[in-house]
Structure prediction request, 307 residues.
Amino acid sequence: MWAQGKENHLVMSNMRSTRHLYDSSMKKTISILFLVFPMWLSAQDLSAYYNLLKSGERDSVLRVLPAINAQFPDNPEVLYLSGLVEKDGEKALLIYKDVLSKYPDSQRADDAFLKVIEFIYTRGLYNKTIKYSRDMIRVYPNSELIGSCVHFLLCSFNAMNRRDSVDFYVDYYAKISPDIQTNFSNYSCAPSLTIAAPQKAPVLVQPPVSKETVQESAPRVSSGEIEKKPVGKYTLQFGAFSNESNAMALKARLKSTGLEPYIHPINLSNKSLLSVRAGSFVTHNEARKVGEKLKREKKFDYVIVEK
Prediction:
C-alpha cells in the first residue's frame, strides 16, 4: 500500500508539473514536440516550422530537417522549407529552382519563384529580374505574391534609371489592379510593397512591353576618374546579400577597381541585408559615369544610391 501510495503521489506530482509547464509555456512545449516528433505533422502542414523560422530558430529546424525529408521524400513543401533554412545563397537558389522545375503546380511554386527573383535582384542583375518578374506574372497570374513581384519589376527599372518604364508600369498596374500599392516616391524604391487584402487574389494578365528608349552609349571616362572621391551625396551599390561571405567576396573583387568598397547594412522587403558599396560622388551624373565604366570594363552591375 505504501509503495502504491508513493507511486500515485509521483504520478499526481508529474501531472501537476506537466500542467504547469503547459500553462506557463504552451508555445515552447509545442515547439519542442514538433522538433522531437516531426512525424506528427503532415507534409502539407509545416506551419510550426515556418513559425520557428520567423522566430529566428533556423538551427532548430535545420536539425530536424533530415527526419522530415525521410518522412516525406519528394515533397515540394519540404523542399521549399530546406531552401529557407539553407544558409548559402547560391545553394538556396538551386533549391528554389528545383521546386519550380519539379513541382510547377504546387502551392509553393510561386513562393519559390519570388525567392529566385529576390535573389537575382539583390545581386544587381536587374535585366534578369525584369525577365523573371514578367515570367512569374504570366505563369502565376492569380498568385497572392504578384504585388511583391511587381515591386521587384519596378525597382529594377528604377535602379537602371529607366524612368519612362517606371512611369509606364506604375500607371499600368494602377489601372489593372488598384489594390497594389507601388510605394514609389520621387523614383525611390521603398523597402517593401504592400497589397490591400482583397477577398480574392488580383487576377493580372501579362503586362505589355513598354516602348523604352534606346539608351545612349555610356561616355568614356579616363582611368584617372576612378579614384577615391571627396565625401559626396551619392555612392554606387553593387549588390546586397543575406550571407556575409558573399558580401565579402564581392567586396574583394571590387578592390581591383581603385575604389574603396565597404559593406553597409540595409533593409529590403523586411529582410536585413548587407549591401556592397563603393565610391563617393557629389553629383548623380558623376556617379553614373564611373558606374557605366565599371559595368562596361569589369562587368559590374550597379545602382546609384544616396548615402
